[in-house]
Amino acid sequence: MISSFERVYGALIGLAVGDALGAPTEGLTRAQIVERYGWVSDFVDDDPAGTDDTEYAVLTARVVLAHGTGLTPDQMGTAWTENLVDQVGGFFGGGFSEMTAINNLRDGLAPPVTGSDNHEMWSDGAAMRIAPVGILCAGDPVEAARLAAIEAQVSHARDGIYCAQVIAAGVAAAMTASSWEAVAQAALDAAPADSWTGRTIRRAVDIGSAHSDLSAALDELYKRISIFHYPFADVGPEATALAMGVFVAARGEYIPAVLGGANIGRDADTIAAMAGSMSGALHGAGAVPEQWRRRINVVRGHCIASTAGTDLAELARDLHTALLAKEAAE
């Protein structure tokens, strides 16, 4: 039996480790990864660290700890203003969607305008950080999708929000599920069926389901899901679909899921982080090798200064306490 705390920590550390594993291959093609690394099976840097994906997830965790399921768009705007607007320096590796939202807040705009007056409102920036919402809504993917839409409005709109809802619902399902199929279905159900996000994720899940060999699945996902005509690899419907396809091809197992994300290229850190959060919640922190957990557990704060020094195990304990309190009140 996997304890609820192990699932909470599994989702958080699973995200952070996936993020760090995929960081060196972000932006590379499948062929470049094979040429440079063969197959990424471990950290390729001597000093691995998570990126903005992990640090924005920490910020989201703090927001849901402060406001719970009663979170409002105004509270999201206040949290981002307090933590990001006045930050001097940093923002290393920060995405365009987040930086545009921060500038919109500086200009006096408020959510949801900060997320809709944003040329990258459909990026994967909300989906990458949303796992803590799924954790708090354990076992209730519908509520997770509702809360994710509120959280995401600060920086995203339309498909950017749909992608966040997909991952939040997937993590929420994984927190209590016993099968990867249940997780995949909950994630699929969270996206409007006729949306860009919904269509692309269904195609990716079908591809992942059709393969028993992970490498072959990555090759087909890369060719059929990637949006090569756009100059950046952070398109939400692409990255979220690739994460879902990788998760399904890995049959929800943690190590194949995060290594699949790291080896597929494109926005590899985010793909591995999203797949890692779902598989980590499904199987618990014990599925994440201890040597990976130990090296990534403390957050650096390279992008968001206020997250520096955050201990992810301690943050998981706080989220677990909030989850138990929420369940006791229901």
Summarize the structure.
By secondary structure, this protein is an all-alpha fold. It has helices at 4-22, 30-37, 52-67, 73-85, 96-106, 113-116, 125-129, 131-136, 141-152, 159-174, 180-190, 196-210, 214-225, 236-249, 254-264, 268-283, 290-296, 312-329.
Topology:
Elements: H1 4-22, H2 30-37, H3 52-67, H4 73-85, H5 96-106, H6 113-116, H7 125-129, H8 131-136, H9 141-152, H10 159-174, H11 180-190, H12 196-210, H13 214-225, H14 236-249, H15 254-264, H16 268-283, H17 290-296, H18 312-329
Describe the largest sheet: none
How many DSSP E strands?
A: 0
Q: What overall form do the CA principal axes indicate?
A: globular
Report how far apart the termini are. 23 Å
Beta-strand percentage range:
under 5%
Unreliable runs: none
Walkthrough of the structure:
This protein has helices spanning 4-22, 30-37, 52-67, 73-85, 96-106, 113-116, 125-129, 131-136, 141-152, 159-174, 180-190, 196-210, 214-225, 236-249, 254-264, 268-283, 290-296, 312-329. Helix 3 packs parallel to helix 18 and helix 14 packs across helix 15. The mean pLDDT is 97. With 330 residues, the protein is mostly helical. It contains 18 helices and no strands.
